[in-house]
Design a protein that fits this description.
Layout lengths: L1 H27 L3 H7 L1 H17 L3 H21 L4 H13 L3 H14 L4 H13 L3 H11 L5 H12 L1
Helix pairs in contact: 3-4, 4-5, 5-6, 5-7, 6-7, 7-8, 7-9, 8-9
Length: about 160
């Protein structure tokens, strides 16, 4: 009798172990967390956030690698949505951070054609203008942000004042 109960318990344990992981893996496919990993724009945002932290710690080389990874994801996102100003902004941002200023400017300007009052694009384009020695153009971007009552205005103003 004991042998029969033991065999049943072992069999039940193996059966539960076999089904458990399969059931768990299938249950997560519809969660909102997993959709973040399938969206290249959201993935890029995570890379950019990590890169900014590294940059603030003066770990520039590691930050640039993350900006490059973000750029790859953004290029994927751009293939599916060419008229999204947020994607265009992040493309410009990551290109600027990887030293590709002319390409960055093209994406910023394309974003402004879609949404001229986009705070992020105006700030980052202004920063690009400062970086490339075009202070007057940076001041034009600052003028667009003047009435936004936003951090983008303050940040661009500080960048301009430092130069």
């Amino acid at each position: 009798m004991f042998k029969r109960i033991f065999i049943i318990l072992v069999s039940a344990f193996i059966f539960v172990q076999y089904l458990g992981p399969s059931y768990g893996a299938g249950g997560d496919s519809g969660s909102s967390d997993s959709s973040d990993y399938s969206d290249p724009y959201k993935e890029a945002g995570k890379f950019v956030k990590r890169a900014k932290k590294l940059e603030s710690k003066n770990k520039i080389e590691r930050a640039e690698k993350l900006y490059s990874k973000a750029l790859e994801k953004l290029q994927q996102a751009y293939k599916t949505d060419r008229n999204n100003p947020d994607i265009l902004n992040y493309l410009g941002f990551t290109l600027r951070k990887t030293g590709k200023f002319k390409e960055a400017e093209k994406f910023y300007l394309a974003g402004l054609k879609i949404k001229p009052d986009h705070n992020g694009i105006n700030e980052y384009l202004g920063e690009l203008y400062v970086k490339t020695g075009r202070i007057e153009l940076a001041k034009e971007r600052l003028a667009v942000l003047k009435d936004c009552n936003c951090e983008e205005y303050t940040e661009l103003k500080l960048v301009i004042e430092k130069n």
